[in-house]
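Entry:
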Amino acid sequence: MKKRLNITIEENLLDKIKTYADQNETSISSLVEEHFEALIKPKPKLKNGMSLVEYMKSLPPSKVEFPEDYDWKEEYYKAKAKKMGYEDLL
């Protein structure tokens, strides 16, 4: 069952929200409901409340050696292109 909720926001923000809702073919009510759902959705937790960075630092070092000049970004995009079947365009 849905309930009515009254909120107060700045007029210029409301105008922007109305425009956004129209462009995305949705209602302001749906936007607010989706936002609240995202806010209360349980966050995935790592052991002992660690952040992902703390967890990655706690892992043992990799046995794979990479050259100093290894271009991670380039290799990432090459792998993505290969996965999508675009490797011949590189």
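Residues 11-89 form one domain.
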